[in-house]
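Readers outside the structure-tokenisation community will struggle with the description of the input data as it stands. I therefore recommend that a typical entry be quoted early in the introduction. An entry of this sort, consisting of the sequence and the corresponding backbone structure tokens, reads as follows:
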Amino acid sequence: MPASLDYVATMHGVWRAGGIAIPLNVSSAVSELNHYLTCASVTRMIANGKYRESLVDLCADLNIELVSVDDVISDTASDLPTLVPERRAMMLFTSGTTNKPKGVVSTHKTISAQITTLIEAWSWTEDDIIPLFLPVHHIHGIINILSCGLWAGATVHLFAKFDIPTITAEIITGTYNVFMAVPTIYVKLIQYFDTITDAEVQKICDGFKPMRLNISGSAACPVKLFNQWRDLTGQILLERYGMTEIGMGISNPYNGERRAGHVGQPLPGVEAKLFDEEHNPITEENVPGEIRIKGDNVFLEYWDNEKATIESFVDGWFCTGDVAVIDNGYYRIMGRSSIDIIKSGGYKLSALEIEGVLLTHDDIIEVAVIGTEDETWGESVVAFVAVADGRQLEYETLKEWCNGKMSSYKIPKTLKLIDALPRNAMGKVTKPDLKKLI
């Protein structure tokens, strides 16, 4: 089920009945759902309408009872268990960037801690009104928006998807005072502004101006986007850091400096520390290390995967796999150690930081940076660049610009910048072409 009253009733019904709620992505392929359902030993699936119909064969094959909300909703409660804080309550699946997705199990205590720390840090009240258009199989939508809103007695408007005209119409009328989104949503709003009149753009921006809080998360917010949003709306985005296993762990302050390109400091009740590859704490600033987290917000276990659970903790610290530095007291994320850190010429380079710098170029609208094998440097930096419509960008011009902009990043001279990749009829780069190019 997408975000809806039925979704909220189902989630809380499962929790109150003492079950483990497993929210799944309505857009998942059958093969993905097969993995989730089999991995989690699911016994009952609740789905509505077209989603229920699409699951009939799969649930029959896996001997799972398939029902709709109408089948199970009741006006009277059965005998319900006493819920202790340590009881398992929810399982969310990881994105599967390093292996098959794992089931992350949270207890009622975990969920309570994740919610209450944000209630305090972000000053939630019953007067808040917020739209929820993000996926509700993800920690961002479930905890940060829906659960925080309900806990505080606030009002949450539920949308099955990000409907720009409908949501911006509400923004114009001043309906919302809190707005949370991923960076892509803010980019899409800015792109939408190019399709409407200046007067309409001004009305939307004026609707954002009086809001008490705009938050960006779930992916790095480029400094360019941070500045664009501030210039358009007057809103200084609050960027934070979290993941499925910990909820939110680090955040820029509600009151205080919100620094572009940084995720702030540990949230109330959360311990965070950087460690090197030998598990030694890092105390110096601007020295890269893995973020490790302690607190009631940390998950209980990976479902039916004791090995992965044990390997994810060292001396009681959860190892996030994310690399950061502390820069003048604030954490700055460099990226996933397995994906975003490029080891080149003896340096650890952040693909996210390089992408952020490239995005400040006026002609560039999208960029992805990866590391490829290089006999001299170990890994060489490769950037895939998409240029704005009607703009032209020559390799030598961009190389010269990079040399000036990125000297502080100590990027090897073998930096390669590739533009105008082959596109299919949908305007997308095809995987075979991409692999061939690499």
